[in-house]
Write a structure and sequence with these properties.
alpha+beta; eight-stranded antiparallel beta barrel; 7 helices; 8 strands; 22% helix
Length: 268
């Protein structure tokens, strides 16, 4: 966990520097990004000067964060501890039957880059909550670039291996392991919570999820897991923004993507 925290510490140090931006420039930003910086400044200004430049593992207590929840989403299994928190920014993928415009789009996985926000979940949860909506207003960063406005560093990739959601937290600079998962619970976002969480294309936020480590895997994936496993037992996708498909395939191609962002909380 400590390498993850060290990376997150530099994220918040960078963030405090970026907060010193004139009101004139802030007025040019979209509302979601202004809201994020307001929340971040409010949260971080409560700390004494230079605190964020001298963070230690005891300062950033990963036992303290409170993960967002909604009715009907099962809680974290008792006994598990927070391992990592990340913002996922990418696309939800779908397929359509071109010959049937009235058909409902079918989910076909997702691709997203995961950005380390572990320490922010401890020190500035109100700012963290603003990131998914604001992240949708900017292009997906390329390569290992930081995620504006959070200035967060890449902690891994989210994709699908066959039908298994995969969280690969192994990069050139760190290795938090890889985990193949399965969905345990899927809960639509209540209507009253969708305000401000729509994509630029009008897409509604995708459901919140509880996922667990897959119990049965093909031999190839099992070999990967055996050699590079993560201690993660459960993953929650919460505070989603965008990503839902249109109601029908009318006007859509055989395959298409919808941009989204979300918080991912890893427990092990």
């Amino acid at each position: 966990m400590k390498p993850s925290l060290l990376l997150a510490f530099s994220t918040l140090t960078t963030l405090t520097t970026s907060l010193a931006i004139s009101k004139r420039h802030q007025r040019a930003w979209p509302e979601a990004i202004r809201a994020y910086y307001t929340a971040a400044y409010t949260a971080l200004s409560q700390f004494p000067p230079n605190t964020l430049n001298t963070l230690t593992s005891s300062t950033c207590n990963v036992a303290s964060p409170s993960m967002p929840t909604i009715p009907d989403l099962p809680p974290v299994t008792p006994g598990l501890q927070l391992y990592h928190v990340a913002i996922g920014r990418g696309t939800q993928n779908y397929t359509c039957n071109p010959s049937d415009p009235s058909a409902i789009p079918v989910a076909a996985g997702a691709n997203a880059t995961l950005y380390n926000t572990t320490c922010m979940s401890c020190l500035a949860p109100s700012a963290l909550a603003k990131i998914p909506a604001s992240a949708l207003l900017i292009p997906t960063p390329k390569g290992d670039s930081q995620l504006f406005p959070a200035q967060a560093f890449v902690s891994g990739q989210h994709y699908f291996t066959g039908s298994a959601p995969t969280f690969n937290l192994h990069t050139a600079t760190h290795n938090y392991g890889i985990q193949f998962a399965s969905v345990l619970a899927k809960v639509p976002v209540p209507e009253k919570m969708q305000t401000g969480q729509m994509g630029q294309d009008g897409s509604k936020p995708v459901p919140w999820l509880k996922l667990a480590a897959a119990n049965s895997l093909p031999s190839r994936e099992q070999e990967v897991l055996d050699s590079d496993s993560s201690p993660v037992k459960e993953v929650f996708r919460v505070n989603t923004a965008g990503g839902s498909p249109p109601k029908t395939c009318d006007g859509m191609g055989k395959t298409f993507e919808v941009e989204y962002a979300a918080e991912y909380w890893f427990w092990g």
